[in-house]
Structure of Fumarylacetoacetate hydrolase family protein:
Amino acid sequence: MRLGNLAGRAHLLRGNTAIDIAKASGGAFGPEHGDLFARWKEFLEWSATARTDIAVPYRIEDLRAPVPRPRQVFAVGLNYAEHAAETGLSAGGAPSVFTKFADSLTGPHGRIVLSGPSVDWEVELVVVIAREARHIAEEDAWAYVAGLTAGQDFSDRDVQMSGTPPQFSLGKSYPGFGPIGPALVTPDEIDLAVPTRLRCWVNDELVQDGHTGQMILPVGALIERISAVCTLYPGDLVFTGIPAGVGMGRTPPRYLAAGDVVRTRIDGIGEMRHTFVSGGAE
């Protein structure tokens, strides 16, 4: 099942058509995505038999963030060894966990305002939590996952690395710095036994190309570690880390400039496209 967001309303996406969930269910499920996560098991059962006669065509460019208002957003740093190496930082052991504030979230297409001269790209697989999770064992973790989506952890490196010690969250939370999409895809739609490929292009130049088999800690282990400290709630997001190829890891470092177009793709989930504009641009 693929869950999308059109005009702020939850839709089932079937090919190039969309089904308004509130209308198709006769009001049994509301238009808000949070309503669906609160009754996720029931909603999944209903979605398999949803009426399709009211499906309408939609434009990819009109999709918004498939999880517009999560209660919590977790992000994991240095979860791919080659990325850790390119930054000169050590990885392994306990995951480096921070937050992207929810106000940074945006949809899979659009324009993003540059915060400064050191904005970097970071393609990530994002996990969406289905039900309340606390002290969850790794082997049970996928039962708590509603779905997967593509994400970008855009980062203002100057802000991220300022302070002693550096703190990550503010530099990663400017408006638009947390795009997700184009849809939430349930795990049954993806072969989890095969590593999922993640790619990022800047102006059609492939800059990141990795796969989830390169993760130091897989999804289940991340959920186990995080839920040992924090309660995870329905609709929460977990950005799971990035493969190598970021701008700060290059010699000399390379960052985004006005006019740059960033394209993000995760196989089985879909593609996002964002254009960066200078500060003050509308």
